[in-house]
Design a protein that fits this description.
Shape: elongated
CATH topology of the largest domain: Rossmann fold
Keywords: ATP-binding, Nucleotide-binding
CATH architecture of the largest domain: 3-Layer(aba) Sandwich
Number of helices: 22
Radius of gyration: 28 Å
InterPro entries: P-loop_NTPase, T4SS_component
GO molecular function: ATP binding
Pfam families: AAA_10
CATH class of the largest domain: Alpha Beta
CATH superfamily of the largest domain: P-loop containing nucleotide triphosphate hydrolases
Protein name: ATP-binding protein
Strand order of the largest sheet: 2-1-13-12-11-3-10-9-4-8-7
Length: 469
């Protein structure tokens, strides 16, 4: 109990100067009971080494992520899946992430840019800023001495060339090659590589050999030459589409001289290709295998392979198998694969569900932007997200996402600097994201999202460890 003199002194001081602080009686308690006073609002961070993404919404602390720094101890694989509907910030995240990674000298990035407007891809501004010329694959431009990638480039091993030819044919046909067609393709490819030594073999050579097989090919298998020709007819017709069909000009000649595979950023501009046509998965298969054999080397560089509209890869069993091998191979050489997809249902319910599941399993990092409630629940079941995270996904505002880094789940606000803003928010992005809001509106939206998130955590605190059934 306080003595009368102390009480009188405090009263006199308050009368003269006013009450300057609130005096509270001390509370004696245990650390276990005191946990209720300070509600847990954020999981442990990922460390302080890497590139900054933004800040964790609940705690306000900085959020730093780098798959190369985390690989081995906190990440079993360096691959990353980004999900979310258009207009919620996926594009801005990809671009700032790449720009920040390129500040490290041992980083190199390849982007398959499948979107764009005004005749150029979304990454055109960033490429220009870095002094990079995008590799624009365009059937019309290719006819006028545009960019060509040769599937039979000597830089690709003969095994890789044959695997690529099979994939192109299987994607176009919609089913696997039977043994007879596969044999006809193999002997034609072997003959072309053995006999053409003064130049790069091209697809026209394969078509010609399939139409007119050598007698030795039939004798080796003790079959009639007409049978070998018949076995290879369908294969020749499919390859002919790349030579004289709607995809001609891009793959039917020697690889264009001057493509710089040592540049810090390599952008394949696919924006002139119909995204809903069979051309897109064929194109991605060719680019993927071509890069595997010409770009990925054991030189201790850390490489990032970012693919927009990645459902073109994962939805085709034959293309998915190629990329699945690339991902396994790439981990040994420091490759981080980043797949950007609008909806998980685009890939897990398709013909390549088995292959898609295998690729998703290798993605130890998952970033999920706003989705509709039904889609969020489906995503939560497939990815094993905590219930609280699934329930908050539909209410996320642009720029805020749920990050799951090998089980470490946090809600993160992506931050864009003023220097990055004109490069990240292109005209297309301005119509699909919050970047066209004023700064005051952005701050108000951010504050509202944080308050809603904090209230949600307090209300659902008991569910933080439960997962979606």
């Amino acid at each position: 109990m306080r003595d009368p003199m102390s009480i009188l002194t405090d009263a006199f001081t308050s009368f003269l100067f006013g009450k300057v602080e609130t005096t509270r009686l001390p509370v004696r308690t245990s650390t276990g009971q005191a946990q209720a006073v300070y509600l847990p609002t954020a999981a442990p961070g990922l460390g302080d080494s890497g590139v900054i993404i933004g800040r964790e919404v609940y705690s306000g602390k900085g959020y730093i992520y780098d798959p190369f720094q985390l690989y081995g101890q906190q990440l079993p694989a360096p691959h990353w899946l980004v999900l979310g509907e258009s207009g919620n910030g996926k594009s801005a995240l990809e671009k700032t992430y790449v720009l920040r990674q390129l500040r490290f000298r041992d980083r190199q990035v390849v982007v398959l840019d499948a979107q764009g407007e005004d005749g150029v891809g979304e990454w055109n501004l960033i490429a220009q800023e870095l002094g990079i010329t995008p590799i624009r694959l365009d059937p019309m431009a290719a006819l006028d001495m545009g960019i060509r990638l040769n599937p039979l480039d000597p830089a690709i091993t003969t095994t890789g060339q044959l695997a690529l030819l099979r994939t192109i044919i299987e994607v176009a046909m919609g089913h696997g090659l039977d043994e007879r067609s596969g044999f006809a393709l193999k002997v034609a490819h072997a003959y072309v590589n053995e006999t053409i030594v003064d130049r790069q073999p091209i697809l026209t050579d394969i078509v010609e050999q399939l139409r007119h097989p050598e007698p030795e090919s039939a004798e080796a298998m003790n079959v009639d030459i007409e049978d070998v020709r018949a076995w290879g007819l369908d294969v020749a017709l499919v390859i002919d589409r790349l030579v004289d069909g709607d995809l001609r000009g891009m793959f039917d000649g020697p690889t264009t001289v001057g493509i710089d595979l040592d540049a810090p950023l390599i952008v394949f501009d696919l924006s002139h290709i119909d995204r809903n046509s069979i051309a897109m998965p064929i194109l991605m298969a060719i680019v993927g295998v071509w890069l595997e054999h010409t770009w990925i080397r054991p030189d201790r560089k850390k490489r990032i392979f970012l693919v927009e509209e990645a459902w073109h890869i994962i939805a085709s069993p034959f293309v998915a198998q190629l990329f699945q091998r690339l991902l396994k191979f790439g981990r040994r050489l420091g490759l981080s694969f980043v797949a950007v997809v609008h909806h998980l249902s685009d890939v897990v319910d398709g013909a390549a569900a088995k292959e898609a599941a295998a690729i998703l399993k290798m993605a130890s990092t998952r970033t999920i932007y706003a989705q509709k409630a039904d889609e969020a629940r489906a995503t939560g079941r497939v990815l094993g997200l905590p219930r609280w995270a699934v329930e908050i996904i539909p209410s996320l505002t642009p720029g805020i996402a749920v990050w799951d880094v090998n089980g470490n789940v946090q809600v993160v606000k992506h931050l864009v600097t003023e220097t990055e803003r004109p490069l990240v928010f292109t005209d297309r992005a301005m119509t699909e994201s919050s970047s066209d809001l004023t700064d005051d509106a952005l701050r108000a939206a951010e504050l509202e999202a944080e308050e809603r998130a904090a209230a949600f955590v307090e209300q659902h605190l008991g569910d933080s460890e439960s997962t979606v059934a």
